[in-house]
Fold each of these.
Amino acid sequence: MVGQGRAVWLAFLAAVLWGLWWMPVRGLEALGLPGLWASLVMNAGALVVAGSWMYLRRLPVHVSARSAFGAFLLGFAVTSFSTGLVLSDVVRVILLFYLAPAWSKIIESVFLGHRWGWGATLALLMSFSGAFLILGGGLSTEGLRLGDALALLAGMSWSAGAALIFVDGRGDALPLSAITAGAAMVAALPFLWLGPATTVAPGVIAAGLGAGALYVLPILVMTLWSARRLAPAALSFLLTAEIVSGVGSGVLFLNEPFSGMQVVGAALIILGAMVEIIQALTRSHELRQ
């Protein structure tokens, strides 16, 4: 597939930046903008810049209803993920979200007709085993927090959205990014209504909008450009590079607990990702022969 190699590298770079998503969220929170508001304002900044650029450049909008709905699901996933970061540990939320590759493999097999091979089984076993260890090696939901549940929901929504965009194969990255950012804003409203009212200085709002324009929008464009060219599971597994940057930064800078059992769980999820990535690149190489 044309551009697949570039898509792999862009998805990897986007993953590293997704892993550091908590930094601007927590930074804006320290300035007085609560975490949920921080996510909404950053997505607003991304939407305003994307929309303004398309208007000023008179860019045509080529987005089908299927791709638009896929982008909407991705936006819902972004908000669920961001809310999870506020309500639970960064490490737990990131790792639970990255059961997304497992959901993507199931979608590919059941709905897209992709062949289910030994690699898919191995990748899924590693992903689920890793999540089991991250949650403490028990099946009880007693320790499951709302943020953890939102992380799981975000992974499912992300997988479904990526599948719709890949199957459609149409839609430019910039308008899809605008739809994703807009959907993320809409999805954040119910969470904001549940929280207390807040007053924020205009300067802090401006900082959040700037973070959305300079940080969030480029990540969305890279991710969605890759989503059109990579199968959902391959994209989701590539994005597990977020685990390295997100978990590493969370442990180093936030001093969050990370036991030996969780180290093993993270390693299993990453190894599962490597199995799928190697298979995806091998299939691509064979198609070019």
Amino acid sequence: MEDFSFERLVVYQSSRRLVVDVYDILSKFPDSERYGLKDQLRRAIVSVPSNIAESCGRKSCKEKIHFIEIAYGSLLEAFCQIEIAVDLGYVGEDTKLDIKPNFISVSRLLTALSNSYKEHLKTSS
């Protein structure tokens, strides 16, 4: 069976694993947060691999970069929301410290992908 190009990207695979990790954290949130922070965090973290996939469907490097930047913003938004969850006592500081390296790894991979598209833009101009 044929793969879509984004399925082979390490950043896409890593961001999907991060979604699973964050959903595990979300299971610890109180039910009262179902439509608040929990919902917002769910949308933000799912946006990361979704925008990586969408970037691969774009023709121009500028468009690809745009969607990678959206993915990066969503990644940072999700991490911020985990910090807020710690502040509110929904999860412990140790949970944040355990998952932070995964966020950093995905952020570096997103930056590298964006930079490769930017380099391609320079060389094709």
